[in-house]
Each structure stands twice: as C-alpha cells, then as structure tokens.
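Worked problem 6 (solution included).
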Amino acid sequence: MTLDQFTHQARRQPFRPFQLVMVDGSRFTVDHPEFVAIDRRGRAVTLHARVLRPYQP
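Solution. The predicted structure is:
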C-alpha cells in the first residue's frame, strides 16, 4: 500500500475499517480514522489503538 492509498483509506467518507499489511506479513487493523496520524512530510505513519497487536484471523 502506498502512502497515497493509505491516506485515501484513512480519510474515506464514510470510513470503513481496513488492514495495513507490513513487509514481514504482519497485519494491523485501523478501526477508526482518529487512530491514524500521518506526518506532514509523508515520512511516517503512526497507528494508535487500545491494544496494538497483529491481526489474528
């Protein structure tokens, strides 16, 4: 997922939860748009959650 794709998903209206898949295959669910912070320069993305743990199907 590119930064543009991530930004589009995070700002989508109405918001729908989505998964962020890392290079190592781990997955994180973004449950709410307020749980995401994107650096102004686009160099960092921060996910916030009550419990940040990999997605378990």
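Discussion: Residues 38 and 45 are 5 Å apart (CA to CA).
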